[in-house]
């Protein structure tokens, strides 16, 4: 018997032993009720660490591309896009493929499930389809009666779900029921302990295979198609795509949203996405990312909808309730350098309860937890990025590191394949459920549609389906809190994966609500020597300072100087003002503080030195037709600013917020297009805006001493 034959013989002898062991002591812990003995983990092989090159052969079309710009260009994109492979999107009537999504981003029109065209005013520079890794491709397979899994009883309610004659508003109730109750029940049921799939799931660390309703081949096929499509549409120098997916997790306690998008840096990716079935704990996701990085595949994960996390996205302890330490902080920042601050489901910069002195804090606030049924209030503290920045300073002073030193982007979270970034041309997010004005609650319900809506909302466990207002009964769907937001912007040398991904890593990024505002932000100690009107402004600023996302190290007692340059969207409203938001750890009180400074005003107006506010520039909106004031506002605002209250011993951060003149909100546009007045309980207008990533000022460590005593940390100045 040769060596190969012996190996096969002994393996066959071992199989019954393994099978008996599985029956007795090895259990796939789907419901996290039984521990798995560590000794048997040595036999496991993690399938999520298998690397596949998803490259495609295609002709090169770019022969005369511009040379890289050392001063960098702003590239606008969306890193949060769902298509038919997401379990919820397919239930909502979405049949758009990843190819459709990328065609849309490049400027083509694609159809909404209700039949109208979705098309951008101008193409984007980069895009990533980020379908839910969890259950990826499975609902479409349930609906397709030619698949083997569709023959299972649990799949029958989904049969032919998205046939053409069923893509109607009237089917919203059925779809809501499928989403709210049936899917959860189907997914939760594992195979019996004796089933061979349990052994396969355990040996490959792929717990998904322990589920009755899961088919790994279908799952891998969907993921491979997403990756193939990204590589097919990637066009270096013209249009950049990223392989990506959404890690859709939450807390067991009170349903706090902890969702992240995972973006890969190249054509290579894991053979499957790592999902909430593998673990609910985001720290395990970061471990997986570290392991991929060791294999040469880099990723970033990007938290989103922290506003709907019930205060659990930016807590002062770990997922398991342990104290944050330097190791935790380093690991989180290594893998999560960015946060999505705005999208359809609201804006997560700050909240009026957290920033009562900020007149612009009440902006596109969503006050409920993501996916809660019935809709349940989301606690603000721990859910907004400005407070997270302040908490990060606090943790640094207590020698726990800073896990919240992230840059900012926006994205859409569209589930139609196509982000609606334009307030005047808005189709919302979830297909048949909110694709018309009545269902999203911006115009009164027609009498014949009220019964349908009540059925629909009952399926969503919504206690009140309508709200009576002056002009009639409106749908109480919660979709009125959603917005036409947002975009991710990266400052990069060229429009390629490598260049844009490097911008993500160094956090030279900013977010917009959908408007294509451009924002430059530099910090240094000799920026006043730069001519703001010089052609060399940007290159000199890079030479003499640091840009957004970076640390500005102390230079003795010198006061830092900041250059801000904002330019309007050519298709948007004029700029009204530029602000700097400062947060700092006061070494005298040992407490974090924040302050908003207006630093540049439109129309030649001057900032009041006492209030730090610009005067009203007089910009107004005619709500009857959404026309705006002409010849008011600025096409660009540019200034040098020094912090008038700077203390060299205070660790601090600074970020820029740029505000446009007011324009009509999408709900107002919906109303006037249908011949109604806007709802009296909603904002008529909004101010589109952009937020830069911060610059962090780092004091000389000799200026501050932190001495832990009895669980408290006295902070004092060293003179």
Uncertain segments are: 30-40, 706-719
Radius of gyration: 26 Å
Query: What form results from the Cα inertia axes?
Result: globular
What is the averaged pLDDT score?
A: 90
Quickly give the structural class. Answer: alpha+beta
Provide the domain count: 3
Main sheet specs: 11 strands, mixed
Calculate the terminal CA-CA distance, rounded to whole Å. 82 Å
Task: Count the beta strands.
Answer: 33
Number of helices: 14
Explain this structure.
The protein is built from 14 helices and 33 strands. The chain folds into three domains: 3-43, no CATH class; 73-481, no CATH class; 517-717, no CATH class. The longest helix is centred in the N-terminal third of the chain and has 22 residues, at 3-24. Strands 2, 5, 6, 16, 17, 20, 22, 23, 27, 30 and 31 form an eleven-stranded mixed beta sheet that branches. Strands 19-18-21-26 form a four-stranded antiparallel beta sheet, covered by helices on one side. It has a three-stranded antiparallel beta sheet with strand order 7-8-10, with helices on one face. The chain is of the alpha+beta class and 719 residues long.
What is the fold's blueprint, element by element?
Elements: H1 3-24, E1 51-53, E2 73-81, H2 87-91, H3 98-105, E3 110-111, E4 117-118, E5 126-129, H4 138-143, H5 172-187, H6 196-203, H7 216-233, E6 240-241, E7 244-247, E8 260-264, E9 268-270, H8 282-294, E10 299-303, H9 326-335, E11 338-343, E12 346-347, H10 385-397, E13 407-410, H11 447-459, E14 466-469, E15 472-475, E16 487-492, H12 497-506, E17 509-512, E18 518-524, H13 537-544, E19 545-547, E20 551-553, E21 561-567, E22 575-586, E23 591-601, E24 621-622, E25 627-628, E26 636-642, E27 652-660, E28 663-664, H14 666-673, E29 685-686, E30 689-692, E31 695-698, E32 704-706, E33 715-717
Parallel strand pairs: 2-5, 5-6, 11-13, 20-31
Antiparallel strand pairs: 1-9, 2-16, 3-4, 7-8, 8-10, 11-12, 14-15, 16-17, 17-30, 18-19, 18-21, 21-26, 22-23, 22-27, 24-25, 27-30, 27-31, 28-29, 32-33
